[in-house]
Amino acid sequence: MREILGVMKALADENRLRIVAALHGRELCLCQIVELLGLANSTVSRHMSILYQARIVQSRKDGRWSYFRLAEQDATPAALDAVSLVLQSLQQDGKIRADAQRLKQILRVDPEILCQRRSESPC
């Protein structure tokens, strides 16, 4: 029961749902997620930590960059099922569709430039 509670709590936030939808089928740098959500690096890092602890996302470091993707091998069955339901349920959501359009623009920009725009710590 603890596992499913952790997954549900992790997904009980609009920004984290937006992150899950944005990561569907791709890997994103933290700064790309920050740009998409329009939140501070520290806030997005906290969201990513919650998703990571619930085993919904995986991360990797490449130099100073942190990259995230939806978990596959490390995900629990509860996390996989919940993410599948979320992705299916949000397909027609207006905010998620707007995020998808915005993400196309963000992906055209070098992540280093995105980090510099934010003038915060490296991604």
Describe what you observe in this structure.
The structure is a single chain. This protein has a 3-stranded antiparallel sheet. The protein has helices at 2-10, 14-23, 30-37, 41-53, 77-90, 94-106, 111-118, and strands at residues 28-29, 57-62, 65-70. The chain has a single domain (2-118), classed as Arc Repressor Mutant, subunit A (Orthogonal Bundle), CATH 1.10.10.10. The longest helix has 14 residues, at 77-90. It has 7 helices and 3 strands; from the N terminus they run ααβααββααα. Strand 2 (57-62) and strand 3 form a beta hairpin. By secondary structure, the chain is mainly α. The relative contact order is 0.20.
Note the topology.
Blueprint: H1 2-10, H2 14-23, E1 28-29, H3 30-37, H4 41-53, E2 57-62, E3 65-70, H5 77-90, H6 94-106, H7 111-118
Antiparallel strand pairs: 1-3, 2-3
Helix pairs in contact: 3-6
Give unreliable regions as ranges. Answer: none
Number of structural domains: 1
Count all strands and give the number: 3
- Percent of residues in helices: 55-70%
Topology as a string of helices (H) and strands (E): HHEHHEEHHH
Strand content: 5-15%
CATH first level: Mainly Alpha
* Strand order of the biggest β-sheet: 1-3-2
DSSP summary: helix tally:
7
Rg, Cα atoms, Å: 14 Å
CA-to-CA gap between the ends? 34 Å
CATH homologous superfamily - what is it? Winged helix-like DNA-binding domain superfamily/Winged helix DNA-binding domain
What is the fold named in CATH at topology level? Arc Repressor Mutant, subunit A
Report the structural category: mainly alpha
Average pLDDT works out at 91
The largest pleated sheet is described as:
3 strands, antiparallel
**What is the global morphology?**
globular
CATH-scheme architecture = Orthogonal Bundle
